Amino acid sequence: MAPLRRKRTFNAAELLNHRSRGTRDIGTFHRLCLKILRSIVLHENRSFIKVWSKTSKSAIMYETGRVYCDNYQNCYSCVHDQPQNLYKFPKRSKQQKIEDALLCQSPLDKTLSSPSEHKPCLLALTADNWLCRISAETGKELQRVYLSPKYKFRYLAWNVLQETFYIKSVQNKETPFARQAGMSQNAVMHLAIFHVFPLQIVGILEINKKGFGSGVTDVVLSQGVLAVSYSNKSVKLYSFEHIVQRYLTEELTLGQQSPLLGHRTVGDVPFGIPVNIQVTDPPPLLFEAFSHNGIQIGGFPWHYIYTPPHKKHRGTHYICSLKDSTLATNGIQNMNCCSLESDVIFFHPADSGRVIHVGPNTINVLKIITELNSPLPSEVVEDFSLTTHRSNPSPRVTVTSSGRAVRSRFQQLDDDPMQETFRLLEYEDELDLLAIAVTNGEDEEGSAHIQLHDNQTGRLQRKIDLDERWDETYPHELYFDRDTIVHIEQKSSNFCCHVYKLRTIRK
User: Fold this and answer.
1) 305: Cα within 13 Å, side-chain hemisphere
2) In which band, very low, low, confident or very high, does the pLDDT at 412 lie, cut at 50, 70 and 90?
3) For residue 178, what is the enclosing H or E element?
C-alpha cells in the first residue's frame, strides 16, 4: 500500500514562485492562482471596505461581477476598485420593461458563427413578450425573438447552466364565468425552451390537464427533469427528453418558416413561436412525493430532501434514497427552532454530496455515507457544526424581592434581534469559503458582520464588519465573489446595494 501523502501548506510567495516555473496544465495553473487569492483574502493586513452604495425604487440584482438596477436599465461593473457604469438604456415604456434576465457566458470549447456570440450576453425577457440578447459589456442589442401573442411569459431560468434555459408563462386562471358555464381550460401554462450558443428554439411545451392532471400550481425544469407541483402538496417528476421524443410535432428553427404558423416565420411579429410539444396523454412518471415546500435532489448516490405537508411536521426534514425512498439512518433532521424565520436545509452548492442545515443559532453541515453494494440504508452524519455565541436566556420564572414567583408569558425567540443570530449563508466556490451573515443586537441594535469559514473544516478564518445597519424585518441578499462582497437589502419601498472591496490596511 502506498504511503499517504502529507498535505503541504504554502504561503503566497511560494505559490507565486511555483507558478513562475510553469505548471503541467491550465487547471493546475488556475488552482494555484486561486490559492494565492485565498491567502491574500484571509491575510490579517487585508480587509473588506465599503466603497459604493446605490439606492433604487425597483429590485437590484447582482450576478458575476455586475450590478443591475432599475429593471436592468443600469449596469455597473464591480471588477474595478469602485463599481463603474457599463451602460444605461434609454427610458423604456411599461410594455418594454425587462421583467427577468439571465447572464450568459460563452463556452470555451465551441467555435461559433458570430464573434459577438463569444462574448457574455444578457438574455432579457420584456413585458411585451420579446426575448432579447444584449451584450453584457456594451448594452447593445444583438438579437430579438418574439415569443407569442397568446401567452404571457414572465420568468426565465436555467435548465442546464449555460446550455439550455426556459421561459415560463403565467398560469391560466379559470374565470368565475367559465366555471359557471362549465367550460374547463385544458392548458395551464406554457414553457418555451431554448438552446444557447447559438440561440435556438427547442420548442414550446404546453402544460395541460390531459397530460398532467388537474391542480397544477407550478412547473420547474432542471437538469432535464420536469417537476410539476400540485395543490395537494404532491410533486411529480418527468423526463423532459422523453416528452420531447414522444410529443414533438415539428422541429422549429428561428427565422425559418413553419407549417404550424401557416408557413410564416418563427420568432417574428405577430405570430411568434407555435406550440410544438403537446402532451396528449400522461407521460411515464419518474418519481412522486408529498412535501410542504417541494423536494430537493442531490448527493452521491442520489437522495432527496422533503418536509411532510402536515402541520405537525413543519420544521422536520426527511433525507431519503431516491432509488427506493428508504429513509437514511439519522435522516430526520429537526432543529426544534422557536423563531419567526424557519430553518432551511439544502444540498451543498459545491456538489460535494453534503447537506447544509441552517437555523438561527446553529449551522449543521452533514455528510451522507453509503456503503457500496450494501443492503443497509445510507447514514447521515455530522461533518461539522457552527453555533452562535449567546448570553444565557432570561429565566422563564423569576422571584421578586418579596418572594413571589413570576412566570414569563412569552419564550424568547431563537432569532431574537438582541441575540447573535445566523441570517444568511453564501458559498464562494473558487476560494472554498463559506460566508455567513451574523447579526448581534447586544452591542448595538442592528449591527452585523460576515464570518468567513473554511468549507472543509468549518474553522473560522476571519470576520468582516458591515457598516450599514441590518434590519431583520426586511429581506436581504448576500454575495461573495472573490475580492468583492455585495449586500442587497430592501428598506420599505426602496432597495439598497452595498459593495465591499478587498483593501490593504495601512498601519
Assistant:
1) 25
2) low
3) helix 176-180
One DSSP character per residue, 378-432 reads: PEEEEEEEEE---PPPPPSEEE-TTS-EEE-SSPPPTT-TTS-EEEEEEEETTTT
Peptide bond into 301 cis (omega under 30): yes
List pLDDT tens digits, range 182-220.
666 889 999 999 999 889 999 999 999 999 999 999 999
Q: Name the DSSP letter for residue 42.
A: T
Local structure of 17: helix, strand or coil: helix
- Note the pLDDT tens digit of each residue in 370-399: 988 888 999 999 999 999 987 665 555 555
- CA gyration radius for the chain? 26
Look-up: residue for cell 427528453? Answer: 241
Can the peptide bond before residue 198 be classed as cis, meaning omega within 30 degrees of 0?
A: yes
What grid cell was written down for 433? 469559503
Strands of 303-306's sheet in order across: 296-298, 303-306, 316-321, 327-334, 379-387, 362-369, 355-358, 344-347
Where in 196-295 does DSSP place strands (E)?
200-208, 216-222, 225-230, 234-239, 257-258, 264-265, 277-278, 287-290
Enumerate residues 6+ apart whose C-beta is below 8 A from 179. Answer: none
When the pLDDT of each residue in the chain is averaged and rounded to a whole number, the result is 87
> What are the residues facing 435 on neighbouring strands?
426, 452
Q: Of 451 and 416, which is predicted with more confidence?
A: 451
